[in-house]
Amino acid sequence: MIIGDRRIMRKVLPLLTAVFALLLPAVASAAAAPPETWQEHWEEHNQLLHRVDYNDTVALYFDNDVNPAAKDWIMPYVTKMWKYVRDTYGTDGNRVREDRLYSIHHQGRYFGGHPSTVYDSSHDNRNVSDVGLDDWANPEYGIVTHETAHVIESIASGKNGSPAFGLWRDSKWAEFYIYDVYSALGMQDQAKAEYDHFLTQTDDFPRAGTHWFRDWFYPLWRDHGHAQVMVKFFDLIGKYFPANGNDYARSMNWGEFVHFMSGAAGTDLKQQATTAFGWPNEWESQFRQARREFPAITY
Questions:
Q1: Residue 1 has what pLDDT?
Q2: From 34, 115, 153, 256, which residue has the greatest number of CB atoms within 10 Å?
Q3: At what angle do helices 228-240 and 71-89 cross, to 10 degrees?
Q4: What value, to the nearest 5°, has the Cα angle with vertex 205 and ends 285 and 290?
Q5: Alpha-carbon distance 93 to 10, whole Å?
Q6: pLDDT (tens digit per residue) in 125-164
Q7: Neighbours of 168 (CB within 10 A)
């Protein structure tokens, strides 16, 4: 039996070696290397970007004026952040996990930032955070994280776009997202600082003196599963909100927004919305119509 086993192994081992030789490269290179340079060709941007670091989660690009040493804090943070975001918001029904985050950094130009997504050919169909500051020497977590909030709201539903953007505008959902990211990554000092800041923020929409974070988004985060309430919200709009192919057919009205958010939270949020935003008669009509038009959303 021992001699027979040895003869069998002599025949089997070469086959096994060949099989492993085919399998191992595919395992070792989960994602192809991103390009070493990337010529900007969007909006007023015209810089030749240089890849300074990458992994299977993030590709990091600087323009010529960013000190390469800035990657020492940017790369670890963006990697942890985007891994958490992909694991949290990525599903089989969307494209969140499809590719890396392309994190672009400018110094002394293009101040602020903008996002782009895999649906957008203007940035070569990549999930992009493109940001500019005077100096990247010290950690500036907020601006980097903020732009990725817009990436997620535009793709997490499995469709292209954000029907609620016209209601929460540029920064209100981003406040929820930033606070959740910091909390989830154990960045307690940063989470506390943002909590204190957001808690006092007021806006003039939808009415003067609105506390979006204090009266709406933080209670949703606290009482309804942290990020999961927004994961469910994006899932619901992807399934039920009107779309033409991959693109949404229109924006949400307030009644629809509260209806879909109630479905995500699993409870009627009309009273919370009244406290946070007021409740005009028009919204009541919209809310009733939304419940008739989208009966699959229950709470």
A1: 35
A2: 256
A3: 60
A4: 25
A5: 46
A6: 999 999 999 999 999 999 999 999 999 999 999 999 999 9
A7: 22
Predicted model pTM: 0.89
Tell me the per-residue pLDDT of 74-85, one tens digit each, with 9 for 90 and over. 999 999 999 999
In order of 117, 243, 256, 258, the CA distances from 250 in angstroms are 19, 8, 12, 16
Instruction: Give the residue among 137, 146, 134 at the shortest CA–CA distance from 106.
Output: 134
- Looking at this protein, which amino acid is placed at residue 43? E
Question: 235: closest CA among 214, 264, 212, 269?
Answer: 264
What percentage of the chain reaches a pLDDT higher than 90?
A: 89
Neighbour-count burial of 284, counting CB atoms closer than 10 A to its CB (0-12 exposed, 13-18 middle, 19+ buried): middle
Exposure of 44 by Cβ count < 10 A (0-12 exposed, 13-18 middle, 19+ buried)? exposed
User: How many residues are there in the chain?
Assistant: 299
For strands 127-133 and 101-107, give the pairing: parallel
What is the rounded distance in angstroms from the CA atom of residue 182 to the CA atom of residue 145?
9
R_g over Cα of the chain: 23
C-alpha to C-alpha distances, 100 to 152, 258, 273, nearest whole angstrom:
13, 33, 36
Q: Which residue has the tokens 């919305």?
A: 273
Cα–Cα distance, 43 to 123 (Å, whole number): 10
Quickly count: other Cβ atoms within 10 Å of residue 203's Cβ.
16
Residue-level pLDDT at 31: 79
CA-angle at 258, arms to 267 and 282, nearest 5°: 130
